[in-house]
C-alpha cells in the first residue's frame, strides 16, 4: 500500500492516488528529464529529444535509453514536454516541438520565435487517445544551430487520465 500524505485534510474517496480502485483510471504516469549532457541540434533539422533520466515510472512504460513512452493500455493520456534550448548565435530564431506517435507527427505542435542568445524554453501539452503499444517520442527543430540544455527545464511526462469504458 502506498502511503498518502497527511499534510492535507481529505477523505480517501475524494482523491486519486496510485492503487486507488474507484473509477477506471489506471496507475500510468512517468516523468523524465535530461540533466546529463547537452544535446546538439543542427539548424533546420528535426531531431528526437532525449530524456535519459527517469524520475518516476509507475507502470514501467518509459524507456530512458530510447526516450520513448509505450503505454500498456488503451486510454486518454495527458502529455507534456518542455525543452530549454541555447542558440549558438544571437538574433531571431524559431523553435518547433511535436509529439511523435509511432514515428508520425501528431498533435501537440508548438512553434515560437525567440530573440537574443539567451536560453529559450518551449513547452507543449496535449491530451491524446493512445493505444496500448503506441510509441510516443518528442522531436524538435530550430532555425539556428544550438544545444538542448541538460536541465530540469528539459522534461517529458505523461499521465493516464481515462480508460475505455467498454
Automatic annotation (TrEMBL):
Cited Pfam families: C1q
InterPro entries from the UniProt entry: C1q_dom, Tumour_necrosis_fac-like_dom
Top-level taxon in the UniProt lineage: Bacteria
PROSITE patterns for the chain: C1Q
Domain called C1q: residue spans: 23-166
Regions annotated as coiled coil: none
Protein known as: C1q domain-containing protein
Amino acid at each position: 500500500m502506498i502511503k498518502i500524505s497527511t499534510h492535507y485534510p481529505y477523505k480517501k474517496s475524494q482523491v486519486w492516488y496510485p492503487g486507488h480502485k474507484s473509477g477506471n483510471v489506471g496507475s500510468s504516469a512517468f516523468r523524465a528529464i535530461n540533466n546529463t549532457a547537452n544535446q546538439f541540434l543542427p539548424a533546420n533539422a528535426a531531431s528526437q529529444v532525449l530524456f535519459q533520466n527517469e524520475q518516476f515510472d509507475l507502470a514501467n512504460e518509459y524507456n530512458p535509453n530510447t526516450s520513448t513512452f509505450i503505454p500498456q493500455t488503451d486510454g486518454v493520456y495527458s502529455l507534456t514536454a518542455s525543452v530549454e534550448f541555447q542558440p549558438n548565435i544571437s538574433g531571431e530564431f524559431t523553435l518547433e516541438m511535436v509529439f511523435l506517435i509511432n514515428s508520425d507527427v501528431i498533435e501537440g505542435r508548438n512553434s515560437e520565435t525567440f530573440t537574443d542568445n539567451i536560453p529559450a524554453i518551449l513547452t507543449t501539452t496535449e491530451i491524446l487517445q493512445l493505444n496500448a503499444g503506441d510509441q510516443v517520442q518528442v522531436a524538435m527543430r530550430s532555425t539556428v544551430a544550438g544545444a538542448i540544455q541538460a536541465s530540469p527545464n528539459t522534461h517529458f511526462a505523461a499521465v493516464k487520465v481515462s480508460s475505455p469504458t467498454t
